[in-house]
Amino acid sequence: MSKSCKGLATELVKCLSESDCVKVEGRPYKECVGEKTPSISSECVGLRETYFNCKRGQVDMRARIRGNKGY
Fold first, then answer.
1. CA distances for 16 relative to 7, 33, 35, 61, 69, angstroms
2. Are residues 1 and 59 in contact, defined by beta-carbon separation less than 8 angstroms?
3. Which UniProt keywords apply (predicted)?
4. The whole model's pTM is what?
5. How far apart are CA 24 and CA 54, in angstroms?
6. Which helix (H) or strand (E) segment is 56 a member of?
7. Burial class (CB in 10 A: 0-12, 13-18, 19+), 47
8. Which helix (DSSP H) or strand (DSSP E) does residue 12 occupy?
9. Number of neighbouring beta carbons within 10 Å of residue 22
10. Residue 10 — very low, low, confident or very high, per pLDDT cuts 50/70/90?
11. According to the model, what pLDDT value does residue 26 have?
């Protein structure tokens, strides 16, 4: 179950590495993930929300019994 969000994490990092926040501004990934500015594409914002929901599902006891929905 700990690896069920790994695919989403790699997609999010790949999307962020192609964004203006990392490329042009040279900021770290951690700062870029928490933003809602136009320097991040809507695809990255969607991946971020999906990744956070996946990580939240790992903590939820009902989801732990049923298993997290993997990527």
1. 14, 8, 11, 30, 23
2. no
3. Disulfide bond
4. 0.75
5. 29
6. helix 42-59
7. buried
8. helix 6-17
9. 19
10. very high
11. 86
Give the tokens for residue 40: 């991040």
> Is a pLDDT exceeding 70 seen at residue 64?
no
Q: What are the tokens at 11? A: 């997609």
Q: Which amino acid is at 45?
A: V
In the block, residue with structure tokens 């990580």: 55
> Residue 45 contacts by C-beta under 8 Å, 6 or more apart in sequence?
36
Which is higher by pLDDT, 14 or 25? 14
Which amino acid is located at 6 in the chain? K
> Tokens 């997609």 label which residue?
11
Asked if 22 and 30 touch (Cβ cutoff 8 Å), the reply is: no
